Structure formats: structure tokens, C-alpha cells
């Protein structure tokens, strides 16, 4: 899957789990993400994965330093990246997974 298609799929799948997620018009392989914790992340998508180009937040200085260490990090999947930067995403992703597994379980009964 090329970067544009992968970004489109992630936007469609996870927009409700984030404050915002949108393509960067001047950089078609990049996406700006705003988590529900007000962490802003610019990510470049390539065959190598999802690379954090920039990250910032409105939180305390210690968290800003911790997040700054993530710049340049590459994640194989968007889910891996989002789970690293957003506890709210993790909770919603897990809740969705549980709901899907319960649905499968109810169909099998």
C-alpha cells in the first residue's frame, strides 16, 4: 500500500479516536495528528514506516522533554505510533477490539 492510501485508511479508521488527523497539503506523505491529550504530532509515512517529524504538547516540561525524545522514531504501523503517544487512543482501541471479539463470540454461539 502506498503512503497516500495508507494515510487515507488510517484517517477513515481512527479519526473518531483522535481530536484531529489530516494530511499536510504541502507534503502529501505527511499527516498532522492531534490526540485527545492535546499532543500534536507531524508524521511522515514511507515504506520504512511512520516516522515522527515533530511532536509537541501543552503539558508540563517533563512530558515535553519525554515526547521530544520520540522525534525521529519510526513505527511499523500507525497503531503502534498512536499507542505510544496517546493513552486515550489505547483505551478506545482496546474497547473497540473487545467489542469486536464479543461480537465474534456471540456469532459463534
UniProtKB/TrEMBL annotation:
Alphabetized Gene3D superfamilies for the sequence: Hypothetical protein (hspc210) (3.30.2280.10)
Pfam families per the UniProt record, alphabetical: GSKIP_dom (PF05303)
Origin: domain of life: Eukaryota
Domain GSKIP as annotated: residue spans: 5-102
Protein name, as recorded: GSKIP domain-containing protein
The species this protein was found in: Myxozyma melibiosi
Classification lineage: Eukaryota, Fungi, Dikarya, Ascomycota, Saccharomycotina
Amino acid at each position: 500500500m502506498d503512503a497516500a492510501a495508507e494515510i487515507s485508511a488510517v484517517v477513515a479508521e481512527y479519526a473518531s479516536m483522535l481530536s484531529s488527523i489530516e494530511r499536510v497539503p504541502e507534503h502529501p506523505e505527511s499527516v498532522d495528528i492531534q490526540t485527545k491529550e492535546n499532543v500534536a504530532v507531524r508524521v511522515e509515512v514511507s515504506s520504512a514506516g511512520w516516522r515522527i517529524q515533530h511532536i509537541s504538547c501543552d503539558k508540563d516540561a517533563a512530558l515535553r522533554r519525554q515526547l521530544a525524545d520520540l522525534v525521529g522514531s519510526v513505527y511499523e504501523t500507525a497503531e503502534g505510533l498512536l499507542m505510544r503517544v496517546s493513552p486515550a487512543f489505547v483505551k478506545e482501541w482496546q474497547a473497540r477490539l473487545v467489542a469486536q471479539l464479543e461480537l465474534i463470540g456471540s456469532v459463534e454461539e
